[in-house]
Design goal:
With 211 residues, the chain is α/β, with parallel strands linked by helices. The protein has six helices and twelve strands. Strand 10 and strand 11 form a beta hairpin.
Length: 211
């Protein structure tokens, strides 16, 4: 097959270029360092700020006794009659304050649902939930109002920290579902108008307990 002179010149230039290595124009662009600024304040404070920016409602408690009191006061003030919770540890700590309002079934008709979580991500104000908790997959999604109870020991800085912590915790048996929930459900798909509570809870409360 005959090769035209112009094509041969192009091939020669390509062969010549391939014989000489070319340095990367931006050698630091593929580094492993984070693209975000280091944390400038306590992780709990950063989470609270980011979470409230996302329309989440943040309550800090110095211990479990204050948690029970604050949560009981909120339920009575809002007059929530059916408080769904299936995690026995939470039920044991809250039953004295919530008494007959606590239910373990009929999630579809509850006023509010209470769950624990895996971790809290300070940088994004996100709650990390998984299918491995007793609440399962549906509790934090189907309830109109979601209350999450977490502890300061569960706060991590970034998403990668949460994922690494999950890997360390579960090893090769990661939960079948891991969810990063950042505030109430919201969408602006229709005429760019923000609507809250379309695909999930319209309100999210986070009780952070010192631990």
């Amino acid at each position: 097959m005959n090769v035209s002179p112009s094509k041969e010149n192009i091939l020669k230039r390509i062969r010549k270029a391939l014989s000489h290595s070319t340095p990367l124009p931006f050698p630091q662009s593929e580094g492993s360092g984070t693209v975000y600024q280091p944390l400038q304040q306590e992780a709990e404070v950063e989470f609270a700020e980011q979470f409230t920016k996302l329309q989440g409602k943040f309550i800090y408690c110095i211990n479990r006794q204050e948690l029970a009191f604050q949560l009981g006061s909120l339920v009575r003030k809002q007059d929530w009659q059916k408080v769904y919770c299936v995690e026995q540890v939470l039920i044991d700590s809250l039953s004295a304050q919530l008494d007959e309002r606590l239910v373990k079934d009929d999630l579809a008709h509850c006023d509010v649902a209470i769950t624990s979580c895996e971790y809290l991500v300070a940088r994004t104000g996100s709650i990390v939930l998984s299918a491995s908790t007793a609440s399962g997959r549906s509790t934090s999604v189907y309830a109109p109002i979601h209350i999450c109870i977490a502890y300061t020991s569960q706060v991590v800085y970034d998403l990668k920290d949460a994922l690494q912590s999950l890997k360390d915790k579960y090893g090769n048996n990661l939960p079948s579902l891991i969810t990063f929930a950042s505030g109430p459900s919201r969408t602006a798909d229709i005429e760019k108008t923000l609507v809250v509570g379309v695909h999930g809870p319209k309100e999210v409360y986070l009780f952070l307990v010192e631990a």
